[in-house]
Amino acid sequence: MAPFTKPEAVLKQAEGLVSVGQSHAALQSLVEMFSSKRFRSTPLTTLEPIVIRFVELCVDMRKGRTAKEGLMQYKNIAQNSSVGSIEVVINRFIQLSDAKVSEAQEKADKVTGPVDVDDLEASETPESILLGAVSGDQSKDRTDRALVTPWLKFLWESYRTSLETLKNNARLEVIYQQVAQQAFRFCLKHQRKVEFRRLCETLRLHLSNVAKYAHQTHAINLSDAETLQHHLDTRFAQLNTSVELELWQEAFRSVEDVHNLLTMAKKAPRPAMMANYYEKLTKIFLMSGNALYHAAAWGRYHAIVTSIGGKTEEEMTKLAGQVLVSALAVPVGLQHEDEDGKSKTSRLTALLGLTRAPTRAGLIKDALSRDVLRLSPAPIKSLYTLLEASFDPLTLCSSTAPLLAELCAPDTPYFGYRSLLERALLSRLLAQLSQVYSTLTITSLLELVSPLEGLGPEQVEAFLMGCARRGERSVYVDHATGTITFIDEGFVVSSEDPIPSTSTNSEASIQPSAAELVRTRLSTLAVTLHNSLAVLYPPPQLSPEEEEAAQHAKFVELVAAANAERHALSLRRALVARRRELLSELSARKEKEEASRRAETTRREKDEEVRRAKLEIAKKERERAQKEVDSIRAEEAKKLAQTLIKKGNLKVSVDEMEDLSTDSLMRMQVEQLEREKKELNQRLRTAAKRIDHIERAYRKEERPLLAEDYAEQQATDRTIFETLQRSRIEGARQAFQEDMISKKRLSRMMQDYQQRKEFIIAQRSEEHTAKLAESHKRIEEEKEKMRAAHQKMKDEEEQERLEAERIRREQEEEEARLEAERRAAEEEAEAKEREEKEKVAEARRKREEERAKTQEEARKRAEREAEAEAHAAQRRAEQRNQSAAQPAQPAQPQGAWRRGGAPSAPTRATAAISTPPRVESPLPAAAPAATTGAYRPGAFGATAGGWRDRQAKPPAAAPVRTASPAPLTSPAPLTSRNAPPPEHKRSDDGFETVQEKKVWKSRRAQGQA
Asked: For residues 291 and 331, is the Cβ–Cβ distance under 8 A?
């Protein structure tokens, strides 16, 4: 396709390609347009015809995958603006596929019957291909596979493609459900059971993915009543189709789907829908052999139909008979269930909408309460009387057999209940016989059961053993004596006891059983003793006051019991109120979540409206630009029309034209050419018709002469045939005579021929013998040569083996030598490594000794310094004592500067903060050390330190010679002379790190640094 081709031009190009028979090229051009970026910005009014034409081409060429991709792209474009356009395209797609199937079916019906293929998605097997290659007959299956099956496959693929395109979109939900129901009708019409199962699985998968796609813009909301109703309608159609196709397992799954949707519904479904639901359940349970739930389903169906009404009396009579027969057909006896059975029972009970599992007694009681017995037909009433009301075991089967034959005839609706009714009848017979007899012969039982055609000796014995195994009846069968013994033990629960939940209303008891005697023994004894005590010890006659007091005591007891009951009732009410509060809180929380969800939905809708308004504005702007483009095109088309009129190619007035587009002009030109072509064809047809009439006249005239020509030709042919026959016979006779003469002539040479033959055979025999001897000789020579060659080859192999053995030994010796050298090298390396380690250890030991020696020298040096400090302190103390004993200093000369207010005995702190004298002072720069109040640099600390302390503290700045005294500065802290030397850190190798020495620098030097 050209880079800037418009969609309309693409459609016209595709039409032109189709008209010349290039459908594949036309489809490819449309596919390329779908993959372009302008495809999404094309208006739907222009795009819809293109997509419809695309679908038509896909159907004609059976391109299902291509159609699916195109429909997906079109759905993504049109789902926000025009849902109806998608519906039109999908319906057109399915209609075309269905029409192709119908057309193929009509063609196949002309040759064979209807199509019958097991699986539409299965490809043709190699066996069928081989059979078609070797067989020449056109059988029914081969014709169907060639004509109908491909289109059936394509139609099935069309339904699947449509469902995949429309799934999980609330705006496309209606058309989705319509396509699903059309697919159901397709499966039902063509009896496609495999495809129906796959369709049901696809719908279940789509429904399960609803929660997965809930975050999308147009997600499906199952809480919406209308959406849920659509799904229910589809599931009911699925249920009806599965029942009609007799796919009972799929029908049960469909019932579960319907039940799950019904539990999600906020309002009750329509009664007619539920009646259909229960009716299908009756068929499913009947086919599965579950008589109990089959009868329960009929009971639910009867209740709904009765509430709806609208049935005739005859229909209600049939329905009542169906309900009562299904209840009577439920087997009698205990039903012990394991955990799996209980879970299954709970599932089935939930499907029927019951609170607890149904029982036979409950079903019959419910049926009687709805007046079913009165509405039932007379045979069913008689059957109920015989099974539930009468007690006659000897004639029970003979009396019931005619009724069963009448009710369960093949043309009656009760035909499927015959086996169940016979089992129920046999169970009832055994229950009545166990009350009358303790031992019964097997022949007698078989005679009693003989009127029932469906129960033979094997079936009766199997039923007895089943009852004994399930605990329904205690029975013992003795084949040695041919008897049946009914065990009547006191601690064995039997079907006569009213304990079992599935037992019917108790039949008339002739005599109590041992179990009943054991169960009622104590209660009977208590009643008897109470009556005896009342007779032996009658209650005393009380006075009115005593009787009133006794009544008062009883009243007090009743009041206490009532108060206790009232207290328990209040507790229950409080519990119920609390539960209601919790439910109200839960509902409020749900309403709040629903409100937030609605608010979010409203916000999304507003955003969608804003976006739609922007799109509408953009659309109007595009329409305005399109109008301008159309006006320009109209002017160009008008000019083109005038040009065509001048050339004579167009014979229409420009003023009479409504549409002056280039396309319309080209179409008019094509129509004019087509019109001229039709006129030419009409003239040709007229001439051909005239020639045809002339030819017919010629043949009509020559028809009477054809018979005469035919008779003349026959006579000529007969004469020629007879002549040829005579000449052939004469030639054969002459050839035979010549052959006989040749035989007589050659018979004289027979003896010479035999002699020559014997001579040649003898000569060739001698030559053969000579050649045979020569060949034996050559064979022996060749054998000798082969033996010599073989011996030579064995000798060479032996030499090669010995050489290989020698090479192997040399290699092993070389490897051993290399291994020894490697080990020697390793030992040498290990020795070197040990030597290096010893050297390192020796160096480390020496460093430790040097370190210890250094520490010892430092310790001794510290001790010497401490002694020196002690001696210096002692000398300073002596000097202070001497200075205190000396007389006062003489007065300074007149005019000398001195410090005002100097104390006579300054303290150490005062001496520490004294400043040096000015330069202008007439006194000398430094006073004697012994003078009191003189400046001493070492007198700042409370105690004097050694040279290490003086070196560690920062040096005092030199006095500045200015006109004013130097400012006071705080002295640096001094360390004690006796303090131990600082500990030096050691590295990992054992070396000590020495602190950086602080060198004194002047302030000017520090500033420069």
From this structure: yes
CA dist 585 → 267, 503, 571, 848, 950 (Å)? 22, 45, 21, 83, 85
- Helices in 648-661 by DSSP H: which ranges? none
For residues 58 and 43, the answer to whether their CB atoms sit within 8 Å is no
When pLDDT is averaged across residues 733-761 and rounded to a whole number, the result is 88
Sheet holding 439-441, edge to edge: 439-441, 483-486, 475-478
pTM for this predicted structure: 0.46
Assigned token pair, 967? 């400012």
What is d(CA 802, CA 795) in angstroms, rounded to the nearest whole number?
11
CB 487 within 8 A of CB 497: no
Q: How far apart are CA 908 and CA 944, in angstroms?
A: 12
Query: Which strand (E) or helix (H) includes residue 174?
Result: helix 173-190
> Residue 30 in contact with residue 54, Cβ under 8 Å?
yes
Crossing angle of the two packed helices 457-470 and 442-449, in degrees rounded to 10: 110
In contact, 258 and 217? CB cutoff 8 Å: no
**How many CB atoms are located within 10 Å of the residue 637 CB?**
21
**112 falls in which pLDDT band (50, 70, 90)?**
low
Residue-wise pLDDT tens digits, 652-661: 555 555 556 6
Top-confidence range, 584-593, 717-726, 920-929, 946-955 = 717-726
Residues with Cβ within 8 Å of 844's Cβ and at least 6 positions away in sequence, in order, are 990
Which residue is associated with the tokens 């009911």? 236
What digits encode the pLDDT tens for the residues 605-623? 888 888 888 888 888 888 8
Which one, of 859, 870, 864, lies nearest residue 945 by Cα?
A: 870
For residue 421, give Cα distances in angstroms to 148, 326, 519, 782. Answer: 47, 9, 32, 97
Q: Is the pLDDT of residue 911 over 70?
A: no
Q: Find the distance separating the first CA and the last CA of the chain, reported in whole Å.
A: 83
- Bridge partners (DSSP) of residue 992 are 986
3-state helix, strand, coil in the chain (%, to 5): 70, 0, 30
- CB neighbour list of residue 513: distance below 8 Å, 6 or more residues apart: 435, 488, 494, 496, 497
Who contacts 322 (Cβ-Cβ below 8 Å, separation ≥6)? 298, 413, 414
Q: Do the strands 483-486 and 475-478 form a parallel or antiparallel pair, or are they unpaired?
A: antiparallel
Q: For residues 120 and 156, is the Cβ–Cβ distance under 8 A?
A: yes
Q: Using pLDDT thresholds of 50, 70 and 90, give the confidence band for residue 933.
A: very low
In sequence order, which residues have a C-beta less than 8 Å from that of residue 222 and are 6 or more positions away?
A: 210, 228, 231, 261, 264
Residue 504 pLDDT class (50, 70, 90 cuts): very low
Which own/partner contact pairs does 878-886 have at CB distance under 8 Å and 24+ positions apart? Answer: 879/930, 882/930, 883/930, 883/932, 886/930
